[in-house]
Amino acid sequence: MRSALGVLLVLVVAAGCGSNSARIAVKQLPMLVLQPADLPPAFARFDEGEQVSLDRVPGPRYNPARFGRENGWKARYRRPGTTATPGPLVVESRADVFASSSGARDDLSAYRDQFEHAVAAHLIQAPRIGDSVVAMTQLQPGNPGIRFYSIAWRDANVTASVTANGFQGRLTLAQALALAQAQERHMAAAAG
């Protein structure tokens, strides 16, 4: 009986370790960002591919080799609109693959630091996406102002983010969150 319990305990521990050891490969990056079918037909993709030096943002995530990062991908979309257009007008989707899940955890912490120090930004609570999530909003002054929502999360050894902007009063957190959830479905499929 003891040996059966010991074997069962080993199997349970091994199964638990397996679920936390999912690893997403660099070659999957192009499918880890928002795809054209994830957005309404009015949107056109105007930039897509590997993240390059022009995509780097000053701050804790600036170094492309940070935390064992192996590579990153981005996709950017826009649509025509006026101050009366509801929803996002520009959407950016990013994904970064790390050698380990601890590197991705460190990168998500760096996202939090970046969001906390962004000008006129406020951290907001977002529903759970992936293994952990951080989100913020910013308002660029104007008449009307431009509202930004940025949501970043981690799945296994990958961090991802969606940033959407639109006119104040026309873009909601729920609309930005729907985009992040669409991207998360791609990541969950990649993690198997």
Structural class: alpha+beta
Molecular shape: globular
Q: How many beta-strand runs?
A: 7
Biggest sheet character: 7 strands, antiparallel
Low-pLDDT segments: 1-20
Query: How many domains would you count in the coordinates?
Result: 1
The CATH architecture name reads 3-Layer(aba) Sandwich
Annotation keywords:
Protein Transport Mog1p, Chain A, 7 strands, seven-stranded antiparallel beta sheet, 28% helix, 192 residues
Structure write-up:
The model is unreliable at 1-20 (pLDDT under 50). The longest helix has 19 residues, at 2-20. The two termini are 35 Å apart. The protein has a single domain (23-191), classed as Protein Transport Mog1p, Chain A (3-Layer(aba) Sandwich), CATH 3.40.1000.70. The radius of gyration is 19 Å and the shape is globular. It contains 3 helices and 7 strands; from the N terminus they run H-E-E-E-H-E-E-E-E-H. The chain has 192 residues and is α+β, with helices and mostly antiparallel strands. The protein has a 7-stranded antiparallel sheet, sandwiched between helices. The chain is 28% helix and 31% strand. 36% of the residues are buried.
Task: Briefly characterize the structure.
By secondary structure, the protein is an alpha+beta fold. Helix content is 28%, strand content 31%. A hairpin with a 2-residue loop joins β6 (146-155) and β7 (158-167).
Write the layout of secondary structure elements.
Blueprint lengths: L1 H19 L23 E7 L18 E10 L11 E9 L2 H16 L4 E4 L7 E9 L5 E10 L2 E10 L5 H19 L1
Antiparallel strand pairs: 1-2, 2-3, 3-7, 4-5, 5-6, 6-7
